[in-house]
Amino acid sequence: MNGWLAGLLAFVFFAPLAFIYARSFAGRLQAAALARGRSVVATAAPKLVWPAVLGCALALRLSGPDLPEWQLAAGSRTLAAGLSVLWFLGSLAAILFFVVIPFVMGRLLGTLFACMGKFAATRDDPLSFGARGFTREGFGEDGTESTQMGFTVAIDGPAAAGKGTIAKRLAAHYGFAYLDTGLLYRAIGRVASQRGLDLDDGATMGTVALALDPAILDDGSLRGREAGELASRVAVHAPVRAALTEFQRGFARRPGGAVLDGRDIGTVICPEAEAKIFVTASPEVRARRRTDELHAKGRAVDYETILDEVLARDRRDTGRATAPLRAAPDAALLDTSELDIEEAFQAACRIVDASLHRRNGA
Ligand code: DC
Fold first, then answer.
1. Arithmetic mean of pLDDT, 299-328
2. Which residues are registered as beta bridge partners of 154?
3. Please, what is the end-to-end C-alpha distance for the chain in angstroms?
4. Which of 126, 226, 290, 359 has the most Cβ atoms closer than 10 angstroms to its Cβ?
């Protein structure tokens, strides 16, 4: 049989396999482009070198003329030597055609899909970038996309304003699911520093975010001061935030209601949240609370150091270019400087009740 015809038949025969690989490759490519903050084409280019070489080698090998004829046509010694190498690779590719053809076709097709924005990585796809990542199952989500009966309470505010305690109590009170989004950034900071990675390198941090194992969120020490500092540093990177967006949005719209607390929930993650609360308190009050909390745990810290930390964290969280900490225009402000936790919780309940009544048309 003519070599070209055999090649054509092989391409048709391997198309389904190539398509499966292309889907997975397209997903990984888009995730990698996102994590590195580069275009899909720039991310794909180095990954297309081998498919291009093997494709050309195979085409050369399957074409009619023999090597000496090609070398004669080449005219120069260097080109003739290059053709020999290509011919050798083509022979190998022809022997391993059942692997090479789906590989070449899959990568080319996958790049095309990625350029068209198709088959973006679903992180629960075991073939996709960052294998485990943030699967909905990993967080006990039921996986439905339905927004029926969804009700999102978005709570934002600076460190130590009391938003975590308020959010947790609201979730328990209304029977909503709760997500402390700060934990996600803390986990990324912790993993990156344990691996000795550069926390200021946004692309690398984005990759860490995509590959994060949800099991680490159970580590109680993530709630400590050090993890908070690391979190604040990695949270400035756009690839890190992008990697976490989809998961947080899925969580927010889960049926049955959800409370999320963080810095950008009402502004970026869930601008359409039914209830938005911006919890704040003066830096002095926040530093005092944090110092007392640490003293109660037996940690020897002084108020001035904690105040400096609180102010530095505020500066970083509000001053970053991507998703800075700020109140959404339609958020209810809750200043807890003069309130104890019970009063703050009751005030938050009144805000959520009002939103629930609005939603239910009362
Ligand atoms: O809420 P927390 O103290 O656990 O947050 C730790 C850091 O993580 C905080 O300084 C900023 C960052 N963060 C963020 O940028 N966006 C969020 N939604 C949550 C936290």
1. 92
2. 260, 276
3. 77
4. 290
Q: What is the pLDDT of residues 337-361, one digit of tens each?
A: 999 999 999 999 999 999 988 887 7
- Percent of the chain surpassing pLDDT 90: 60
All residues at 6 or more sequence positions from 132 whose CB lies less than 8 Å from its CB, including other chains: 123, 138, 211, 213, 214
Closest CA to 290 of 156, 189, 164, 171: 164
**Tens digit of pLDDT for each residue in 123-152?**
333 222 222 233 333 332 333 333 346 899
- Ligand 1 mean position to 262 CA, how many Å? 6
Q: How far apart are CA 184 and CA 34, in angstroms?
A: 18
Ligand 1, atom 18: closest residue by C-alpha: 262
186, 221 contact by CB (below 8 A): no
What is the domain partition of the chain in residue ranges? 3-118, 152-361
Beta bridge partners of 334: 279
Tell how strand 177-180 and strand 152-156 pair up.
unpaired
Residue 248: half-sphere exposure toward Cβ, Cα within 13 Å: 30
Which of 263, 283, 286, 265 is CA-nearest to residue 274?
Answer: 265
Q: Copy the structure tokens of residue 151.
A: 């009700």
With the C-alpha atoms ordered 315, 319, 320, 322, is the resulting torsion angle positive or negative? positive
252 close to 270: Cβ distance less than 8 angstroms: yes
Which residue is closest in CA terms to ligand 1's atom 11? 232
- Using alpha carbons, list the distances in angstroms from residue 272 to 141, 182, 357: 20, 20, 16
Ligand 1, CB cutoff 6 Å, lining residues: 159, 181-182, 185-186, 228, 231-232, 235, 262-264, 313, 317
Q: Which CATH superfamily is domain 152-361 in?
A: P-loop containing nucleotide triphosphate hydrolases (3.40.50.300)
* Residue in 153, 166, 168, 185 to alter for ligand 1 test, most ligand atoms within 8 A of Cβ: 185
In the prediction, which pLDDT does 303 show?
A: 96
Task: Provide the token pair at 100.
Answer: 């090479």
Distance CA 161, CA 261 (A): 11
Question: In 3-state terms, what secondary structure has residue 73?
Answer: helix
pTM (predicted TM-score): 0.62
pLDDT computed for residue 42 by the predictor: 86
What spacing in Å lies between the alpha carbon of 103 and ligand 1's midpoint?
42
